Amino acid sequence: MSASNPTEATGLHPTARPAEKRKDITFAKKDKALRVDVHALGEMIGELLKEQGGEALYDLVEAARRTAIDRREGDPAAGAHLDALVHSLSAATARNFVRAFSTYFQVVNAAEQVHRIRRWRDYLKDDSIRQPGSFEEAMLQLKDNGFELEAVYKLLSELWIEPVFTADNIEPTRRTILRKQQNIVRRLVDIQNPVLTPQETHANFDSIRSDITTIWQTEEHPIEERTVFDELEHVLFFLTDVIYRAVPPFYDRVRDALINAYGEDAQTLRIPQMLSFASWIGGDMDVRRDITARTMRETLARQRSLILDLYFNECRALSGTLSQSSTRVGISEEVMQRIE
Length: 340
Fold this sequence. Notes:
- There is one protein chain.
- This protein has 340 residues and is an all-alpha fold.
- The protein has 2 domains: 1-129, no CATH class; 131-172 and 222-319, no CATH class.
- The protein has helices spanning 6-10, 32-72, 78-87, 91-125, 135-144, 149-158, 175-191, 198-216, 228-262, 293-321, 333-339, and strands spanning 164-165, 278-279.
- It has a two-stranded parallel ribbon.
- Helix 7 (175-191) packs antiparallel against helix 8.
């Protein structure tokens, strides 16, 4: 049976369920901004489905969504209706059906990431409230339980976290899609800026809408079988575009949390290294027979090239910041030694 007619698939017209029947979902005051974001993004997905798949696809997805809500709210017949709808789909329709929900959850996940940033900033604005699970709360709890600064520093010095990348735990999503997802998060963050003009806010939403549309029109996963170097480039995306940017703020937050808990005594401490990253990709000869000594050399050379590029860009930016001349100001011996 074709799923182009949701009435045939479910026995119910997708609009037959009145909106007022749905129970209100209560959002805590702290999460109201998330509700606004999810609502706006949900409307974008609805517009996308009508534009790219037609009214039939939109009605089908709405029928499934409404029926799923009925099931969650205790309707004993809703589960059977939902099963009938899903089993009625042709392969082509099922593909778009799954992609519709997948796209929706991608943007909702982006909104949740932004909301975590928003909540973290709210805690930073109010020193009287501790963010559960934060570095700040952990350090204050240690101090409250009688740990001196020296003991905490010793604990940090003994802490070692080393995530290891393997080909098995890497999602095959295209890097182009991952970058568009990053852009959606950035635009959602930008929209939080209270000084934006309506035109600037609209431009950010247009950018999000464009990225969502392009994601829909792009194959999520490569059709060709991935090579070792495809796997390598994929993990290097996370290392260079995500982890490399996240590590310095991680150490900054640890240091700030120590200072917040222990005051001036912690300001002179140099935070010990706690994070390291490793990868089997390009070097796991037990898993892939096509990995050779040459493969490992090329893998290491690629990693070395990328990290040196990142360091070079950091140094170039730093040279623009530290423009002082030794003829104008004194420069400490420690700084000179590091430069040399």
